């Protein structure tokens, strides 16, 4: 049995979504793949590019209880979020336990998503495991989950990795396509992203997402700038399919992100060069408040050759292709 789950790229609203402003994201044709092979041992082994461990089926419940206790300690302020999980394997085992998983076999996960790039790899890994577990349990008489139930469960499991995160990753990986998230409410948008979009890798930031979020909060928590972010997200959503208006919205968004201090100088230089070329670009994700690397950059350059620009900065780039579907089984 095989399943896949897409990654995501934020079009607008990173950071601002924490303060009640909307965010737009798109599921991408860059996936985490899962394959399950049954065997006779009373255990589930986790393997692949992401995992390397094994759990007896009877150990899954106690592990879930232990991780729940650790998260309670995080919520009480007595444990750092980084100390909740000992390894990525435990997050996957937690997902299986949440489904009362009882199928012996090997679960193999392989990721096409770059790590530390803000593309929702944790949510995608949770989602693909959940889809696989759900399908296997259905074979034993279990009931399928609705999309809304799956979304809620992905968010619940993901809290172990990110603490108090937004709903963006879970929304994109569950519903696919373009989604709008506002105050934890998700709307699937009935429009296509269009051509000319790229994701550009500027390198893994030297500071964590949590550090960036905290730094921005310390200065801008009570700022009126979030109303400006709200406005630019609405502008981008209305502009999709109209290149001139998209350029205007993306450039405005970039300048707002500069104001809150999450665009490293080197990345800002790349974006300035892109604008001189006739393109537009912005940080997509948390960005960085220190160092030269800012993670993923969203680049809009319809009809332009961006190869020389990206080569000049030594930034790999990839066409941004929309996946209209969320996590799903692809074969029995």
Question: Which descriptors would you attach to this protein?
Answer:
eight-stranded mixed beta sheet; 12 strands; 332 residues; 40% helix
Task: Describe it.
- The protein is α+β, with helices and mostly antiparallel strands and 332 residues long.
- It has 10 helices and 12 strands.
- The termini are close together.
- The relative contact order is 0.19.
Number of helices: 10
Name the helicity range: 40-55%
Determine Rg (CA atoms, Å). Answer: 20 Å
Quickly give the structural class: alpha+beta
Helix and strand layout, with pairings?
Elements: E1 2-12, E2 23-38, E3 43-48, E4 53-56, H1 60-75, H2 88-98, E5 105-111, H3 121-138, H4 147-162, H5 168-175, E6 178-182, E7 185-188, E8 197-201, H6 209-220, H7 225-239, H8 243-259, H9 265-277, E9 280-283, E10 296-300, H10 307-313, E11 317-319, E12 328-331
Parallel strand pairs: 3-5
Antiparallel strand pairs: 1-2, 1-12, 2-5, 2-6, 3-4, 6-7, 8-10, 8-11, 9-10
Short description:
The chain is an alpha+beta fold and 332 residues long. The protein has helices at residues 60-75, 88-98, 121-138, 147-162, 168-175, 209-220, 225-239, 243-259, 265-277, 307-313; strands at residues 2-12, 23-38, 43-48, 53-56, 105-111, 178-182, 185-188, 197-201, 280-283, 296-300, 317-319, 328-331.
């Amino acid at each position: 049995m095989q399943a896949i789950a897409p990654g995501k790229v934020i079009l607008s609203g990173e950071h601002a979504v924490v303060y009640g402003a909307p965010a737009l994201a798109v599921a991408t044709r860059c996936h985490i793949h899962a394959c399950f092979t049954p065997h006779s041992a009373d255990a589930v082994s986790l393997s692949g590019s992401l995992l390397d461990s094994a759990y007896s089926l009877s150990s899954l419940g106690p592990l879930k209880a232990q991780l729940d206790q650790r998260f309670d300690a995080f919520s009480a302020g007595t444990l750092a979020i980084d100390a909740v999980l000992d390894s990525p394997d435990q997050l996957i085992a937690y997902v299986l336990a949440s489904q009362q998983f009882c199928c012996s076999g090997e679960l193999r996960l392989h990721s096409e998503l770059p790590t530390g790039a803000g593309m929702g790899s944790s949510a995608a890994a949770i989602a693909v495991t959940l889809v696989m577990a759900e399908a296997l349990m259905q074979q034993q008489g279990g009931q399928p989950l609705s999309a809304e139930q799956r979304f809620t469960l992905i968010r619940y499991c993901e809290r172990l990795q990110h603490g108090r995160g937004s709903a963006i990753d879970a929304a994109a990986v569950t519903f696919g396509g373009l989604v709008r998230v506002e105050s934890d409410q998700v709307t699937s948008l009935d429009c296509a992203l269009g051509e000319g979009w790229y994701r550009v890798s500027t390198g893994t930031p030297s500071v964590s997402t949590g550090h960036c979020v905290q730094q921005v909060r310390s200065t801008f928590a009570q700022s009126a700038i979030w109303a400006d972010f709200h406005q630019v997200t609405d502008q981008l959503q209305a502009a999709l399919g109209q290149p001139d208006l998209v350029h205007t919205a993306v450039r405005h968004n970039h300048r707002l992100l500069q104001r809150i201090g999450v665009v490293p100088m080197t990345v800002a230089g790349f974006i300035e060069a892109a604008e001189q070329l006739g393109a537009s670009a912005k940080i997509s994700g948390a960005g960085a408040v220190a160092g030269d690397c800012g993670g993923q950059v969203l680049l809009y350059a319809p009809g332009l050759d961006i190869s020389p620009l990206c080569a000049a900065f030594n930034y790999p780039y990839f066409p941004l292709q929309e996946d209209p579907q969320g996590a799903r089984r692809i074969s029995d």
